[in-house]
Design goal:
about 450 residues, alpha/beta, Urease, subunit C, domain 1, TIM Barrel, globular, Amidohydro-rel
Length: about 450
């Protein structure tokens, strides 16, 4: 299941990978001295792309499931826990967050990081490299002082640290890219918002901006949200909006026309009070959003959940509009293939990586997952797309490759650090919550 319209969906086909690249897809392929992976009774498809997640929260998972955004999350996470992170906490959270991604079929993620110091950022990058996850490491504001960084802030992102991470750790790593986590005009003054975006452009980095969700601290809008504000005139394909729930249809249309991508994290947005996901507005504007998990302190890192929740939520809104017009729902709107592509190629586009990943296409990198279909909960496999979207879960993901390297085989991750670092990972989470005074 290539998700490439020029390649199509092929039964019983082979995928030939050399030096991390997909070189050919077809029937009866052979190559001398090749390692063979038996994919009979499997769906072979691209790895998922998570366009927005905070991986370092992994060791405090299971604490935020009853939190709202503007209540407990801002107070407890951004105002307390993140300031307690030591560099090793960044490493362990990022490492096991990346392991969860790989285990659940995600081969690429945008990791929105809150590094308190340069050393924190360096250990976060160490984690991604040790795990083998393809990542856009996104350097956001430090987590040590929420009042300084999040409430009409006039302090720019730490440029010296960001340049050091880019030049010394990321620029020569084929699996890593750089993003900048912008606060935008919702959280900082206009001059700061613009200068942060200019810094991202100077570094050729993705600029991903938390905007238009809940009632951000520096905003008083409701139905009169002012959209991009001071960033107007600076929009382009290198700008990604995380959430965007309160953007007007006109603002979304303008952004889509300018090439801006939107990352929707439907499960967290439904819980925490962000507002209605932007999905429908982006679709009406002729674009398609990318899915993301967001805060893994609250929800699972499994992208399959976001595909299903985002799909069915948008169908519900579309169906309700028809019903309120006193008509019967004759067909559903967004399709299973749509939501799967939002979890793969649309995520790749949002990260500026669609020439490299997102589909199984000769010439692209071999980021691939194999999903078992001979399980009694997935068989019979009448429609592979619907099987992936609605019947499968992480237990069915048998094999995962990143850049042609097998990182999961026979249902188990191959990295020995899963066992070697597990106790330290658990102890890190326990210490953070104890120091924060939060009962789990």
């Amino acid at each position: 299941m290539s998700l490439d319209p020029d390649v199509g969906q092929l039964d019983g086909a082979d995928v030939l990978v050399e030096d991390g690249e997909i070189v050919e897809i077809g029937h009866g392929l052979s190559a001398s001295n090749a390692e063979e992976i038996d994919a009979s009774d499997h769906i072979v498809l691209p790895g998922f792309v998570d366009s927005h997640i905070h991986l370092a929260q992994t060791q405090v998972r299971g604490i935020a499931g009853d939190w709202s955004l503007m209540g407990e999350y801002f107070d407890h996470m951004l105002g307390n826990i993140t300031g307690l992170y030591q560099p090793e906490d960044m490493y362990l959270g990022g490492l096991f967050g990346a392991f969860e991604k790989l285990h659940t079929g995600t081969t690429t993620a945008l990791d929105w990081s809150y590094p308190n110091t340069l050393e924190h950022a360096e250990r976060a990058v160490d984690a991604l490299q040790d795990a083998g996850l393809r990542t856009v490491y996104t350097y956001g504001p430090p987590g040590d002082d929420s009042a300084k960084w999040w409430y009409e802030s006039d302090v720019g992102l730490p440029e010296e640290n960001i340049r050091a991470i880019h030049d010394e750790r990321i620029s020569d790593d084929d699996l890593l890219g750089l993003g900048l986590g912008l606060r935008g005009p919702d959280f900082c003054v206009d001059e700061t918002a613009r200068s942060d975006l200019e810094l991202a452009r100077d570094l050729d980095a993705i600029a991903t901006v938390h905007m238009g969700a809940a009632l951000w601290p520096s905003s008083d809008y409701g139905d009169d949200y002012q959209g991009f504000g001071c960033l107007e005139g600076m929009l382009g394909p290198d700008v990604n909006v995380a959430h965007g729930n309160h953007f007007s249809q006109e603002d979304v249309q303008h952004a889509v026309d300018a090439g801006v991508s939107f990352s929707s994290t439907p499960e967290v947005e439904m819980q925490m009070g962000h507002g209605i996901p932007v999905t429908g507005k982006v679709l009406d504007a002729g674009g398609r959003p990318a899915w993301g998990v967001d805060v893994c302190s609250a929800v699972s890192g499994d992208m399959g959940s976001q595909m299903r929740i985002g799909l069915q939520l948008q169908r519900m809104f579309d169906n309700q509009e028809i019903i309120e017009g006193h008509e019967e729902v004759g067909e559903v709107s967004i399709s299973c293939r749509d939501t799967l592509e939002m979890a793969t190629i649309e995520g790749a586009k949002a990260l500026g990586m669609d020439e490299e990943i997102g589909t199984l296409t000769p010439g692209k990198r071999a980021d691939i997952q194999l999903l078992r279909t001979n399980d009694f909960t997935t068989a019979p496999n009448h429609d592979p797309v619907q099987t992936v979207v609605f019947q499968a879960d992480p237990s069915h993901i048998d094999t995962v490759l990143v850049d042609g390297e097998v990182v999961k085989r026979d249902g188990e991750l191959t990295n020995p650090l899963v066992d070697e670092e597990f106790d330290r990972f658990v102890a890190s989470g326990e210490r953070l919550l104890d120091e924060a005074g939060i009962d789990a």
